[in-house]
Amino acid sequence: MRFLADENFNNEILRGLRRRIPSVEIVRVQDTEMEGYPDPQLLAWAAEHGYLILSHDVNTMRGYFYDRVKAELPVPGLFLVHGSHPIGAVIDSLALIVSASEASEWEGAIHFLPL
């Protein structure tokens, strides 16, 4: 399972998930050539490269996701996390997702964390 963490995604969540599941593949947008690119281009890049997206941009990212659906373009799985949710609960949800499912089960849909 491969995750692309949006530029403003909480790094404490990423570190916690990596501590739990060291083999999980997480790439931060700022560590790619996509740093600074707008959300529609991130969605396209993630879909093209097989990444599920982690984001706190609940309103904007969700809107761009649905724009791609309406245009019949490929969409990655999108995991949205409100900033007010406890970090531990989000890490627990992501750990469960990684250990008990396949990436293909999450593609093409929006999911809110924690589960």
Domain tally: 1
Largest sheet: 5 strands, parallel
Task: Give the strand line-up of the largest sheet.
Answer: 2-1-3-4-5
Overall structural class, as computed from helix and strand content, comes to alpha/beta
What is the strand tally? 5
Number of helices: 4
Task: Provide the helix percentage.
Answer: 40-55%
The radius of gyration is 13 Å
> What is the terminal separation in angstroms?
17 Å
Average pLDDT confidence is 96
Shape: globular
N-to-C series of helices and strands = EHEHEHEHE
Poorly predicted sequence stretches spanning 5 or more consecutive residues: none
Q: Strand percentage, roughly?
A: 15-25%
Would you mind describing this structure in some detail?
- This protein is an alpha/beta fold and 115 residues long.
- The chain has one domain (8-83, 101-113).
- Helices cover 42% and strands 17% of the residues.
- It contains four helices and five strands; from the N terminus they run βαβαβαβαβ.
- Strands 2-1-3-4-5 form a five-stranded parallel sheet.
- The two termini are 17 Å apart.
Please describe the structure with a list of short key phrases separated by commas or semicolons.
alpha/beta; 115 residues; globular; five-stranded parallel sheet
